[in-house]
Amino acid sequence: MTQFQTEQPLAHATSTEPVIVARDVEKWYDNGFHVLKGVSMTVYKGEVLVVMGPSGSGKSTFIRTFNALEPYQKGSIEVDGITISHDLKNIEAIRREVGMVFQQFNLFPHLTVLQNVTLAPIWVRRWPKAKAQEVAMQLLERVGILEQAHKFPGQLSGGQQQRVAIARSLAMQPKVMLFDEPTSALDPEMVREVLDVMRGLAKSGMTMVCVTHEVGFAREVADRVVLMDGGYLIEENTPQEFFGNPREDRTQKFLSQIL
Amino acid sequence: MTSVTPDSVSSARPDVLALGPVAWAKKNLFSDWFNSLLTIVIVGIFSWGIFRLILWAFTVAQWQVIPNNFGLFMSGTFPSQLYPRIWALLAVVCGLAGLSWGVLGRNVSTLFSRNVLIGLGIVCAFIVLFPPTRPNSLQLLPMVALVAGGAAAGRQIGRKFPGVGKWISLSWFLSYFVALWLLGGGLGLTRVSTNDWGGLVLTLFTAVSGIVLCFPLGLLLALGRRSALPVVRLLSTVYIELVRGVPLVAFLFMGQVMIPLFLPIGSRPDRILRAVIALALFSAAYLAENVRAGLQAVPRGQREAAMSLGLNTPTTLGLIILPQALKIAIPAIVGQFISLFQDTTLLSIVGLAELLGIGKSILANPAYLGRYAEVYLFLAVIYWFFCYAMSLASRKIEEKLNTEN
After folding, report:
1. Which pLDDT score is estimated for B405?
2. Distance (Å) from the alpha carbon of A240 to chain B's nearest alpha carbon
3. Chain A partners of B401 at a C-beta cutoff of 8 Å?
4. Chain A residues within 8 A (CB-CB) of chain B?
5. Angstrom distance (rounded) from CA A194 to CA A217
6. Averaged over A166-184, what is the pLDDT?
């Protein structure tokens, strides 16, 4: 299996200023499994990059290396100009700039929706409480949860919880947002409300990396789509080409399985 | 399959058919011959037992031993001319309890609901009618008034200053030192040797001290056992496993005999202090395992979410992981506190005159020879009262912290 190389930079929606630069990232799990076998990828400012691939391809693990939730053994990752190292201060600095939305929402169940959103700005950004709450209320309005601000996460539906999770990440005003299969744990009728929020976010110019199986979303919103399989990055293409005229056989096979 | 016509569909929840007492008994107690037999046998055994107990309590039992020694039961050989200090301590505790109740219940519509009033009435009636407390009812009734008054005042204060909660915790913390001062003397009060501390006062003092000390220690041990640092993890694990492998009695004897050996001659810590330390060190090991179970029950995603927001490890632990872990562990932790409270009875073996020890020494008095049943029944009721109060409190806290629905 050869690793895919871009011959020439693809056209990007907004800029050529890189936010995340991953070079030949390799990772082994503790049990010795070689999950990432040298993956390189650049995320540019303002673009929406969709990562697809079969389960076990390493796509979630890969984007989780961007905010050092997963350590890697070889290669380098640069986020917003800072190279990820083992230094805790450095990792915390990077995490402040990278928002992440999880498959299982991971809201803090013992805090209200508003407290979930204001927690990090107050404790990490050191904002005064009033400012954090004001920003939080704006964000909650943007994701359509304003009326539920004083409820606990357990009282909300899955779709509402995921929208709160997006607001919680946005409250830190990150430079890039990572979405790790944000709709996979949702009932079908709730997928749409979450994707709508993500669409709005993309339109606002947020840099986004989304691991998702939502082909419609990828077609419509993505600037680039990449396919990962078996720890390699197989293909990187525009959505039109990726879904219409894929370059690699593996992509074709993958698309035939999911479409 | 019957079809449903629109006007027979009602959105109201149907009333549960109320069973009459006869129907209820038939359904629950006499549904078939075997259940009927069981019901008859069990009810028979119970009523016979209760009948015998009541018969014994009113005809055979000689309760004189309780009121005659009430002071001993409550505070051991504490000098009786200094009893006002014990009353003052009780007043402080009652006042604070009332205030806390009022502050916590500041948003409840009626603080003194019918049930609460009935409860207070029963307590007052008990104080006036129960023979052992009757001589002191003039001191005890104001305590009830103090609780009620404190509650009313706490409610007003709590409504006016919503941030008063942390002051309540602080005043409980300070009240511990006030208790030490009132019991031990010094700073203008006559000193009372800890040899004269005893009875229920000593039981409560050692239990509270043990609980207060073992909680932070257990928390640290639990965190240590899950630490990423191998040395910390190893030390915590070794401590927990060693302590859990030793019976408490052995631990208490070690505390009495061995702690002085490690310290320079002349700096012999007090007997009660040694007992409290042994009790706390022992319970901390068990508590650590309860807390660890709570920590493990918090999903990994919680930590990841907190870290991905840029929170550092102490903040993640303090604001996200521990509140959830402790909430999960509350029943187990309170269970541990209850057994610590009961374990204080073992202090009588190492020569401290706590409640059970006082009971034993009263029974050794020739005047009360053979009054075992009366004394032990009385002690059992006291222990039950405090243990049940703790478990009731734990259930209330759980209800309060429940954020689902």
Report:
1. 56
2. 33
3. 110
4. 67, 69, 88, 92-93, 95-96, 98-100, 102, 104, 106-110, 119-120, 123-124, 152-155, 165, 168-169, 172
5. 11
6. 94
Q: Rounded to whole angstroms, how far apart are CA atoms A42 and A53?
A: 18
Nearest residue on chain B to A169, alpha-carbon basis:
B309
Both tokens of B334, joined, read 């309170």
- What pTM was estimated for this model as a whole? 0.84
Q: Tokens at residue A180, please?
A: 């790790």
Contact criterion met (CB below 8 Å) for A122 and A129: yes
Q: At A229, which helix (H) or strand (E)?
A: strand A224-229
* AA letter at B157: I
Question: CB A69 to CB B319 under 8 A?
Answer: no
Cβ-Cβ contacts under 8 Å, B299 against chain A: 104, 106
Residue A6: pLDDT over 50: no
Q: What single string gives the DSSP state of each residue in B232-272?
A: HHHHHHHHHHHHHTS-HHHHHHHHHHHHHHHS-TT----HH
B350 close to B252: Cβ distance less than 8 angstroms: yes
Which residues are CB-neighbours of A191 under 8 A, at least 6 positions away? A159, A183, A214
Please give the Cα distance from A200 to A183 (Å, whole number).
Answer: 16
Q: Rounded CA gap, A180 and B60, in Å?
A: 75
Q: Which residues contact B127 (CB under 8 A, 6 or more apart)?
A: B133, B134, B136, B137, B140, B141, B144
Closest CA to B223 of B234, B236, B239: B236
Q: What is the pLDDT of residues A59-72, one digit of tens each?
A: 999 999 999 999 99
Q: Are B126 and B133 in contact (CB under 8 A)?
A: yes
Rg (CA), chain A: 18
Using an 8 Å CB-CB cutoff, list chain A residues near B324.
Answer: 108-110
Give the residue on A whose Cα is nearest the Cα of B314.
Answer: A123
Q: Is A109's CB within 8 Å of B323's CB?
A: no
Shortest CB distance from B309 goes to which of A104, A120, A154? Answer: A120
Q: Residue B215's pLDDT is what?
A: 95
CB contact at 8 A, B69 and B165: no
Flag residues of chain B having pLDDT under 50: 1
Burial class (CB in 10 A: 0-12, 13-18, 19+), A245: exposed
